[in-house]
Amino acid sequence: PLQSTRFLSQGETDTGKTSQKVRNMLDSFRTFLGREIAQLRLSFQRKPPIAVNRVLCSGKNILVCLPEKVNVADILGLLKVELKPQNIFVLTENTCESVYFPSGVRVFSLSESGLGFLYLPRRGLIKEIRKQGIDIAIDLHWQFCLPSAYMCAYSGADLRIGFYSPKANGFFNFEYYGRAGPPEVYCELIRLLKEISSSNRNGVPAFS
């Protein structure tokens, strides 16, 4: 009886592993298909080049897509100091009440219920964010994240910023390739944006 119990446990373990592999394969396929569809849609919405430093200098409303594990206070504090936006909007997967968001920051939750079958944000959330008049959208996911990249692309922002990835083609019009990983790369990116913004204030010709 003891041997048969061990055999059954091993069999259940193998079945569980197989089921997990199948779920992972299905999730990967759904993500791949969602990304392909999103990029196809975006290919029909190509916008003309923009003057990056002018948008950074004049942009009043910033949308920040935050990863689940990030020091919220540090990132948003640095953004306020360096870019001086009037309003900051946050899109986050972290709905934990213990996470502190500075006063004046409006938070949108990106939960599983807000995503479609292909992991693309639903229209209701997209419409709500577009109503805010976003000028600059920044996706701080170090690894490409389809829902947040899609939200940046459809936020209505003139400047859509993300980290370089072969998968990110079409979602952003400003990609940063950082050598360091999080959290250092967040500070690198924000300070680079500050330098670009300052170039417009100092009379340096705008560039696209």
Could you describe the 3D structure shown?
The chain is α/β, with parallel strands linked by helices and 208 residues long. The chain has six helices and six strands, in the order H-H-E-H-E-E-H-E-H-E-E-H. The chain has helices spanning 2-43, 52-58, 72-83, 123-130, 146-153, 184-201; strands at residues 61-66, 87-92, 106-109, 136-139, 159-163, 174-176. It has a six-stranded parallel β-sheet, with helices on both faces. The radius of gyration is 20 Å and the shape is globular. The protein starts with a helix and ends in a 7-residue tail after the last helix.
Using brief descriptors, characterize the structure shown.
208 residues, alpha/beta, six-stranded parallel beta sheet, globular, disordered C terminus
Rg from alpha-carbon coordinates: 20 Å
Could you give a short account of the major beta sheet? 6 strands, parallel
What is the H/E order?
HHEHEEHEHEEH
Measure the end-to-end span.
73 Å
Percent of residues in helices: 40-55%
Structural class, please? alpha/beta
Characterize the overall form.
globular
Poorly predicted residue ranges: 1-8, 204-208
Could you tell me the strand content as a percent range?
A: 5-15%
Mean pLDDT: 83
Please count the helical segments. Answer: 6
Describe the structure in brief.
Helix content is 46%, strand content 13%. With 208 residues, the protein is an alpha/beta fold.
